[in-house]
Amino acid sequence: MTSPFSYTFPAIRGVQAGREYYVSMCPLRLLAKLFVFDNEELMPELRAQRSINRSRIPELARYITSNSDSYTFSAITASIDGKVSFTPVGNDDTNHFRMGTLTVDMYAKFIVNDGQHRRAAIELAIGERPELGDETIAVVFFHDRGLERCQQMFADLNRHAVKPSPSLSVLYDHRNAAASVAKHLGLTSRVFRNLIEAERSSLSKRSRKLFTLSALHFAILEMLSERELEDFSVASKKCQDFWEVIGDQIPEWIYVREGRMTAGEVRQDFIHSHSIVLHALGRVGKFIYKTNAGQPDLQLLLRKLREIDWSRTNIATWEGRAMIGGRMAKNSQNITLTCNQIKLSLGLPLTPEEQVIESAFTSARQ
User: Fold this and answer.
1) What are the φ/ψ torsions at residue 39 (nearest 5 degrees)?
2) In contact, 141 and 85? CB cutoff 8 Å
3) Which residues make beta-bridge pairs with 140?
4) What's the whole-model pTM score?
5) Burial class (CB in 10 A: 0-12, 13-18, 19+), 252
6) Contacts 24+ apart (CB under 8 A), 208-212
7) pLDDT confidence bin for 45, thresholds 50/70/90
8) What are the residues whose beta carbons fall under 8 Å from the beta carbon of 230, sequence distance 6 or more?
9) Secondary structure letter of residue 309 according to DSSP
10) At what angle do helices 116-128 and 57-66 cross, to 10 degrees?
11) Nearest to 133 by CA among 80, 64, 59
């Protein structure tokens, strides 16, 4: 029996692994009141969930408030540590395990097994946009059977969670301006058309694609500011002009388009179609447009790209910059060092920040 004071939820009852569970809808404004976190000061083995990453919360909250007419959240999973009862609607067999009312003792504790960051972000978003409190989120309730069971549920719920590849995330993202430009270039630019892998972010040797969509997306983010990306037409034109001149200066890209080389051969023997180089070229483009008022002469400024030895065997140039131990690398310092090498080859000056990293790199090689 539950106490005279209780929570009541309209719910659907089901069975998994021989145990009942319940699916209901919860108003967003009640999440913070109902669902609590374990004491994060406890040792991990005494908690039923991971420590919450506070740095993730503002970004998730901004996602809700910035997309209040289209945000999407999956269900929260919670365990109920307390007395519960379920009253089905009707007495026939059809409804017995379906619609009904879930009654939870007022003194029961709700523990979030999956969705603690969503719950915290929703609380923060409602503080900014109180009207969101009347909206709902699906909640899956399980009856708590102790700490060990809660920990196992957390492990099971996260065991097979796999994030989509960065390329697929870009492909399906219709809010991101840079993603829209990247997809547009992949369809219209003669440099990228039919050569963009839109689903995976790594390419096999047999792949007929030369670039990944995520690599092009990162290059565009590096090249254009948020303000420039606000005008899709201008941003697309600027990127198309820049990358088509780039494409004219790299013979192997042309050979792939003409069928004289395979994409796999180019990626195996050269570095210029890999993400780090596209990222660095995007940074070079940003510098060129920033330091040349109006429409720069891209053909003149980029003509020396053709003289660069992009081969992987050019260890003297690329080891420690675009490669580490002969393998492609991509961290912020490697991107800067690769950008530096391209700018030096083009006769472009380094920024003070780039010069600091270049000097440290040069000193370390001596």
Assistant:
1) -65, 110
2) no
3) 23, 77
4) 0.78
5) buried
6) 208/262, 208/263, 208/264, 209/263, 210/253, 210/256, 210/263, 210/266, 210/267, 210/273, 211/273, 211/278, 212/166, 212/167, 212/275
7) very low
8) 177
9) -
10) 50
11) 64
